[in-house]
């Protein structure tokens, strides 16, 4: 495949990150399957083979494709970025023919230079056979007499001058000195404490993990008056505002309105060209869902059954 161009198999097997609220996976996979088949047909130079075949997808159809949001769907920004690449590849395949690597002309074959012919070597004259070399015998060293070191005379003892005689007077008491050593004792240093017997240094206490501060609960007025930035595509503002008003009444306990945590997380909104930014709305719904209780076990089993079926 030419470098920088998408292969149909890459389009068919592309996967995306799954988030709390994203594009419905089944709809995205259906569009990628058709785009991969149309890209292969355009690469082969084929359009609609028969009257029943659909024409290939156009870049405008890929860019205008819309998907329903779902719980645990594909991340919207990743899908939109990849669909832009698919649209550009379909436009390129429809305008210029695709040449596989086997259709490229083969490079011209270079003729190698002829190898140089070695010059003939002159004939060597016949020489008489050489006489065999005598066997090598290691030389025998003469015996060496042991060396006896010469006796070194000891120096004479150095005379120590006697101290001058002191004047007669009362004898001073002798100064205390170190105890005399026994004949078999020497001047050894004081015994040291082995490392194993030394007290271990105190172990510093482990660092305290930072305590996460819980988010402040939302008030009904904050929920009802919340606004978001605009995005393309985004959730339709009228649908989002209507659901937030319902959640505010349930949070305040007005009009008998009740909601569960799963009702908030599974809420879906249609998309529009200038709607609320999907990432901001999804993050706010996750924070809002934490203020509602979980559904009872019977309702949980029913929700799981619907999710597995759809």
Structure classification: mainly alpha
What is the general shape? extended
Our measurement of the CA-to-CA distance between the termini, rounded to an integer number of angstroms, reads: 37 Å
Number of strands: 6
Report the average pLDDT across residues: 74
The major sheet is characterized as: 2 strands, antiparallel
Order of helices and strands: HEHHEHHEEHHEEHH
Widest sheet: strand ordering: 1-2
Task: Report helical residue fraction.
Answer: 25-40%
What is the strand content?
5-15%
Low-pLDDT stretches:
111-115, 181-186
The total count of helices amounts to 9
From the alpha-carbon coordinates, what is the Rg to the nearest angstrom? 49 Å
In brief, what are we looking at here?
With 310 residues, the chain is mainly α. The protein contains nine helices and six strands, in the order H-E-H-H-E-H-H-E-E-H-H-E-E-H-H. The radius of gyration is 49 Å and the shape is extended.
């Amino acid at each position: 495949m030419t470098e920088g161009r998408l292969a149909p198999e890459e389009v068919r097997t592309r996967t995306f990150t799954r988030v709390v609220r994203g594009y419905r996976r089944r709809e995205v996979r259906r569009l990628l399957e058709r785009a991969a088949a149309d890209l292969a047909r355009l690469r082969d130079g084929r359009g609609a083979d028969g009257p029943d075949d659909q024409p290939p997808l156009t870049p405008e159809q890929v860019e205008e494709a819309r998907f329903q949001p779902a719980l645990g769907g594909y991340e919207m920004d990743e899908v939109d970025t990849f669909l832009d690449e698919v649209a550009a590849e379909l436009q390129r395949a429809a305008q210029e023919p695709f040449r596989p690597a086997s259709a490229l002309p083969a490079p011209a074959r270079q003729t190698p230079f002829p190898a140089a012919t070695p010059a003939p070597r002159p004939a060597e004259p016949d020489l008489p056979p050489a006489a065999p070399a005598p066997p090598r015998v290691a030389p025998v060293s003469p015996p060496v007499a042991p060396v006896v070191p010469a006796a070194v005379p000891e120096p004479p003892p150095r005379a120590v001058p006697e101290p001058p005689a002191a004047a007669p007077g009362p004898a001073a008491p002798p100064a205390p000195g170190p105890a005399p050593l026994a004949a078999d004792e020497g001047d050894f240093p004081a015994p040291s404490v082995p490392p194993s017997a030394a007290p271990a240094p105190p172990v510093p206490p482990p660092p305290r993990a930072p305590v996460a501060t819980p988010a402040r609960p939302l008030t009904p007025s904050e929920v009802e008056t919340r606004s978001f930035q605009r995005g393309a595509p985004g959730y339709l503002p009228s649908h989002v505002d209507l659901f937030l008003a319902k959640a505010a009444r349930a949070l305040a306990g007005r009009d008998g309105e009740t909601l569960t945590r799963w009702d908030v997380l599974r809420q879906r909104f249609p998309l529009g060209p200038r709607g609320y930014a999907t990432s901001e709305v999804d993050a706010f719904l996750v924070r809002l869902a934490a203020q509602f209780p979980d559904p009872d076990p019977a309702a949980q089993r029913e929700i799981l059954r619907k999710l597995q079926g759809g």
